[in-house]
Amino acid sequence: MSPESTGQNEHYLTVYRRGFRTWRGNRPFWAGLFTILGGLPIAYFPYANMHLGNMTIAMSTTAGAGSLIIGVLLVTLGLTMWFHHIVRVFAGVAAILLALISIPVANIGGFIVGFLFSLLGGALSIAWVPGDAKGAAYETRSPEADDTRAPEYGQEFQLSLIHRCV
Predict the structure, then answer these.
(1) Which of 64, 93, 91 lies closest to 75 in space, CA to CA?
(2) Is 38 exposed, middle or buried (0-12, 13-18, 19+ CB in 10 A)?
(3) How many CB atoms lie within 10 A of CB 17?
(4) What is the enclosing helix (H) or strand (E) of 55?
(5) By the 8 A CB rule, do 74 and 95 touch?
(6) What's the sign of the alpha-carbon dihedral 54, 59, 47, 96?
(7) What's the pLDDT score for residue 122?
């Protein structure tokens, strides 16, 4: 054994943690998690009963089926963000729309908690962009090799003003 071969004696939890970190880095993980966490209270609260001493408070509304559908759709969209991240923009827009619809339908969006989590998850899903390869960021090019490079910031601003005036 040489000191350079550290991969053979790693603990299996370290291997799983690194694998999960790689899996998590290739998709909008936090967006999916927040969307799932937002869908659960929206689907749960209309069917829940709270017990305060001897008194039972039923939070069911006339739109209990609607809130269940919204909650299940939000959980499905969160899983879609994880396992089919190509449609992340659609899933994010749909999550935001369902979160907004849950305000009048599902007990003020799962008592605001589900609404906020779903809204945050949808926004994170829309904002997430897959990263480039590590080598692409450090690629060096000489200015003489390519004359089609972008102009400086000031030049770009001046060109846009010229185009607007013409």
Answers:
(1) 91
(2) buried
(3) 11
(4) strand 55-58
(5) yes
(6) negative
(7) 96
- SS3 (DSSP) at 79: helix
- The answer on pLDDT for 154 being more than 70 is no
Backbone torsions φ then ψ of 55, nearest 5 degrees = -100, 135
Structure tokens at 52: 């305060």
**How far apart are alpha carbons 124 and 28 in whole angstroms?**
8
| CA neighbours closer than 13 Å in the CB half-sphere of residue 21 | 6
Beta bridge partners of 51: 56
Residue 50 bridge partners (DSSP): 57
The predicted model scores a pTM of: 0.71
**Contact assessment for residue 85 and residue 126, using Cβ atoms and an 8 Å cutoff:** no
Single-letter amino acid, residue 52: L
Give the model's pLDDT for residue 123: 96
For residue 135, is pLDDT > 70? no
Q: Which of 86, 79, 61, 78 is nearest to 119 (CA)?
A: 78
Say whether 151 sits in a helix, a strand or coil: coil
Task: Label each residue of 2-39 as H, E or C.
Answer: CCCCCHHHCCHHHHHHHHHHHHHHCCCHHHHHHHHHHH
